[in-house]
Amino acid sequence: MPPKKTIAEPNVNVPNGDAAKGRDIFDQQCAACHAFEGDDKTASAPTLGGLIGRKAGLTQFPYSKSMKGAGFNWSEKHLFVFLKNPSKYVVGTKMAFAGLENEQERADLIAYLANN
Description:
- The protein has about 120 residues and is mainly α.
- The chain contains 5 helices and no strands.
């Protein structure tokens, strides 16, 4: 069996983000499904506390096969590209979110996520 393909660290520059603005974006765009704590087995989406550095698809949330096999650890760079278009970055993801086109909004959200 050939080795699994993993998603390599993107070669992008993530702008400096404002965590306070990121919190507003989180509240508007993410909080309906995501939380920072809770039971991943029963949640509608995986918890995001400690996301940076965590292996994609690792918690007890029932991730898609593609997310479980993505083979990367969440970094600011992976998040920056993923948040632009989740279903394009991890084809087959269960995340039903069109994405954030605006680079600064993504950077602000990442700054907030990195602090929680």
